[in-house]
Amino acid sequence: MGARTWPNLTSALLRGEELATADTAWAMGEIMAGNATPVQIAGFAVALRAKGETPSELAGLVEAMIASATLVRLPEETRTSAVDVVGTGGDRANTVNISTLAAIVVASAGVPVVKHGNRSASSTTGSADLLEHFGLPLDLGPAGVARSVAEAGIGFCFAARYHPGMRHAAVTRRELGVPTFFNVLGPLTNPARPTSAMVGCFDPRMAPVMAEVFAQRGDSALVVRGEDGLDEFTTAAPTRVWMARDGKVEELLLDSVELGLARSQPADLRGGEVAFNADVAHRLFAGESGPVRDAVVLNAAGAFAAQSGFPGDFRETLRAGIERAAEAIDSGATAAQLERWVTAAQAAKAAE
SS3 of 222, please? Predict the structure, then answer.
C-alpha cells in the first residue's frame, strides 16, 4: 500500500482491501490529534463503512482513541470487577434511558459500575442529559469519577470530557448524517477500562464486530440488538445476543418471554423530554411495575451475567439476574443508590 497517507488508506479501502490494525490506529490518531481535514475524515469513514469494518480494523480505531483519552485510574481490583452498561444509540426508537436505569439498578445490587456515555445520539434524552437532570456533575474529572466509584459504587465518564479529540470529527459526523465507525466506538473506549460490559448496538452488522473486539482483548461482554431494532435487550421482540468470553464469541437468539417477562409493545418503552424520562425513572425506582421495569431488569440481568463471566446456563443466569434486579428495586436500594451517587459525585466535584 505504500506510506500511510489518507489517499493510500482510502484507495485501499475502495479496492476492498482490509487495512492493518496499525493503519486504522494511525488514521484515528491523526483524527484525534486534529491533523485530519473534514474531507479526509469523511472519505476515510465512508470508504471503511462501504467496505465493511472488520474486528482488527475496529480494534485499531479503539486502540488509538484510548491512547488519546484522559484515563480514569481505578484500583485494579475495582477495574476488573466493574461493568459498563451502555448502548451505541442511533436506533431512532426514542426509548426511555433503559441502559442508564439498568446501570443504577446494577450498582444498587452491589456490582461496581463505570458508565461511559454522552448526550443524545438519536433520542430526545441521552444518558448524560438524564444524569445531569438528576444533579450529577457531567464534567467530573478522573479523580472525581474514581472517588464516586469508591464511595457510591458507580461513576459516569462523560465522553466529551474524556475524549476531547473527538471534537475534531464533530462537523464531519454531523454533516455526513449517516452511521459510520464513530457510532460504535463509545462502548469500546470506556476511559476507566472496566473488563466487562453490557452493550446495546443498533447496527446488526457491527454488533458481532464489536463483540469480537471485546473478545480479542479478553473482556467479558454481552452485545445485544433487539429484532425490533432497539440497541437494548428488548421485551418487544426477540433479541440477538453475542456473548464474548474466553476470547471467543457465541451468538444466540433469546426471547424475554422465555424468561418469564411479558411481551411489550415498542410504544410501551418510548421516552420523551428529560423531565418525562426522569419521572419514569423515579416511578420505576419507587417500585412501579410494567414494561419499562421489565426491560430495565432484563438489561441489568445481562450486566450481571457479563460481570460474572457467564457462569452455567445462560438463560438460568439471566433469570437469577432478573430476580436480583427486582429485589434491589423493591427493597428501596435502587432509589437510595441514585441519591448516594449524586451526593458522592457532587462532593467529588466540590473537592476538585
Answer: strand
By C-alpha distance, which of 221, 145, 169 is closest to 65? 169
Largest CA distance in the chain: 62
Residue 145 in grid coordinates: 469519577
**Residue 297: closest CA among 233, 341, 342:** 233
Nearest to 86 by CA among 101, 72, 107, 73: 101
The reply to whether 95 sits in an annotated binding site is: yes
Between CA 188 and CA 191 the distance in angstroms is: 9
Q: Is 108 annotated as a binding residue?
A: no
220 is in an annotated binding site: no
Does the annotation flag 173 for ligand binding?
Answer: yes
Residue 324 in marked binding region: no
Q: What is the pLDDT of residues 246-272, one digit of tens each?
A: 999 999 999 999 999 999 999 999 999
Whether residue 12 lies inside any domain: the answer is yes
Q: Which amino acid is at 70?
A: T
Length of the chain: 352
Supply angle C-alpha 344, 349, 350, rounded to 5: 100
pTM score: 0.97
Q: Is 99 annotated as a binding residue?
A: yes
Distance CA 247, CA 313 (A): 19
Does 274 lie in the same domain as 136? yes
The contacts of residue 189 (CB under 8 Å, 6+ apart) are 62, 65, 66, 69, 116, 163
Residue 181 and residue 264 in one domain: yes
> Are 63 and 99 contained in the same domain?
no
Q: Is 100 annotated as a binding residue?
A: yes
